[in-house]
Amino acid sequence: MRFQNTVAFGFPQIKNKAAPFLFQYQASRYFSSQLQSEQKRRSSFGIAFDIDGVLLRGKDPIGGSPQALRRLYGDSGNLNVPFLFLTNGGGIPESRRANELSELLGVKIVPSQVLQGHSSFKSLLKRYENQLIVATGKGEPAVVMSEYGFKKAVSLEEYASCFENIDPLAPYKMWTTKLGLDRSSPPLNTVPRYDVSSETVKAVFVISDPVDWGRDIQVLCDVLRCGGLPGQDNGHQPQPPLYFAADDLEYQAAFPSNRLGTGAFRIALESVFNRIHYNPLEYVSFGKPNPFVFKNAEAMLKQLQPSYHSDYFKEPGDSGSQSFKTLYMIGDNPSVDVKGAQQAGHPWFSILTRTGVFRGKHNHAEFPADLVVDTVEEAVDYILGRECIS
Length: 390
Prior knowledge:
One of its GO terms (molecular function) is hydrolase activity. Helices cover 32% and strands 13% of the residues.
């Protein structure tokens, strides 16, 4: 709603000397009631949804997720309640993930509503923008990093192909996939190839759980213990920095039982590296439950917050944003979603569903949530009821 400088009111005509003062009083009451109405309509809360095990299992919606999300939009399709997806998953750019979620869940999702495990890697752009980096994980790791602005990002698969015999088991890997069989169209933002045989790798990024653990552990051990250049005896060179997008041991996918995640790969890599190297593996893990991720989510939710204040009511320098009274984290993994919300502190409120990693009858013992529900639809029902929104 916008108020113009000229406003016509339908007040009854008053014929006495006190009319100007009464008019001012009624106008003041009118504007005050309008402002209070707008402030009530303005959301003082936001929601962060995990994806796997909360909204989707594989590609299938679960727990009434499409219906739950539709309640957060107005009749015109505009966002009434600011929400985003806070997931440790990844492997593709946020723009493509937003399109996928829109199709699967039946609501319009924009890229700014998608925070994946590797989204935090954007914060390292200034440090490595023009440096050779290696990215690994399922999906298109080099494409993801290139879209963030890293100019010399190569996938581990491409990197390994530049070193003959670096993977001794390569001749025995004859498997093919549907993705591998489709070579008719080039990938989005094809990553340029570099002569990496003499250039040291400045950093390694694991953006999601890798596909070929054996090859990746072998090549990463070569890169990390040789100062960034495999096959070279560089003495006691410093280990290039290693960054993980997440550290989930398990996650809920399409299979009924939990699947091993990026954290499991980290444990395997660390175990092998520490057995063959004189110094223990050094690494940094992003993703939930890192409090940095929740701070970033809060900042993004403020940008998504519907701005109902009119220009008429804005003070000079007022951006129209306000602090949240409550931010709800809806997840299925106590050690990731609930723990992260607890570490982030106010204004986060954790809600645990029973549709994914967590299946307990009662609350989790080590990381108890503020609320436990069966499905995400029940979680949204609770939130809207608590916030007095029909």
